[in-house]
Amino acid sequence: MSMNKISNFDIETIIEGLEDAINVCYTAPNNPEKQGYPYATGYSRLAMQTAIENLKTLMHLQAQYDLETM
């Protein structure tokens, strides 16, 4: 992640991670032996935790940037 204003790339990366998790949930019933609901649950939880961490980091970086450019 960049050390200045939030870029579209940063936001797109978070969105892609969440979209991947949604797709894993949709495909869970089709593959119960390898990537069923337990896998989808864990994958989605990690995706959401990662999204939260990344958003918090972006918020922190944005706040620093805002202070430095005042």
Assembly annotation: single chain
**What are the secondary-structure elements, in order, as H or E?**
HHH
Write down the overall mean pLDDT: 91
Shape: elongated
Structural class given helices, strands, pairing?
Answer: mainly alpha
What is the CA-CA span between the terminal residues?
22 Å
Number of domains: 1
Number of helices: 3
State which percent range the strand residues make up: under 5%
Largest sheet: none
CA radius of gyration: 16 Å
Low-confidence regions: none
* Portion of residues within helices: over 70%
Could you describe the 3D structure shown?
The protein is an all-alpha fold and 70 residues long. The chain has one domain (8-68). It has helices at residues 8-27, 32-35, 37-68. Helix 1 (8-27) packs antiparallel against helix 3 (37-68). It is elongated.
